[in-house]
Amino acid sequence: MGGARGAGWVAAGLLLGAGACYCIYRLTRGRRRGGHGLGLRPSKSAEDLTDGSYDDVLNAEQLQKLLYLLESTEDPIIIEKALITLGNNAAFSVNQAIIRQLGGIPIVGNKINHSNQSIKEKALNALNNLSVNVENQIKIKVDASFLSLYDSHVAKEILLRVLTLFQNINNCLKIEGHLAVQPTFTEGSLFFLLYGEECAQKIRALVHHDDADVKEKVVTIMLKI
């Protein structure tokens, strides 16, 4: 009888040992597969954040990864995707502040000078969303060449976006049609360029543009200046 009981304890021990080994196997296998076995979400790389399938609003760490990618890569496809993701996230007020604090505004602004037309467009989209935040407007620095984007020969998509940028800034500065804040016309600032006479002349000239959408946008701006 003692032998049967002993055999029973041995069998139970083997069964428990096998179960423990299986649990450890599943645990380590799950870790090797990126933590799925633990129910943890794997960390997204910067390029993963631009693949179009990531719909969540990015946090500060993810935005920092994206800005580093945008600054370090020369691949036009990655640049464009990163700008689209940044532009989408810049539609949220909390991210408008985070992107500014991370030094992202000049990184995005530099892409306006890119030779690729689509990258210019996506950079302006991102800046337009960022420019809704008044504090961000002070950080936007684009040189005198920026005004060339207001020339009549510039592609319609670019023209509409630089006009929207002007409109966003003008709307933020005014309450009930009057200037609520006196812009700081520091040389080299966006205010210095947009509220200078050269820009005013270019915008007035666009009233005669062939495209109806451009004309409408210009007329709307001029009525509020």
From TrEMBL:
Q: What is its main location?
A: endoplasmic reticulum
UniProt entry keywords in alphabetical sequence: Endoplasmic reticulum, Growth regulation, Membrane, Mitochondrion, Mitochondrion outer membrane, Phosphoprotein, Transmembrane, Transmembrane helix
Query: Any stretches that span the bilayer, and where are they?
Result: 6-25
Compartments annotated for it: namely: Endoplasmic reticulum membrane; Mitochondrion outer membrane
Quaternary organization? Interacts with the DNA-binding domain of p53/TP53.
Role summary: May play a role in cell survival and cell growth. May suppress the transcriptional activity of p53/TP53.
Name assigned to this protein: Armadillo repeat-containing protein 10
Q: Which organism is it from?
A: Aotus nancymaae
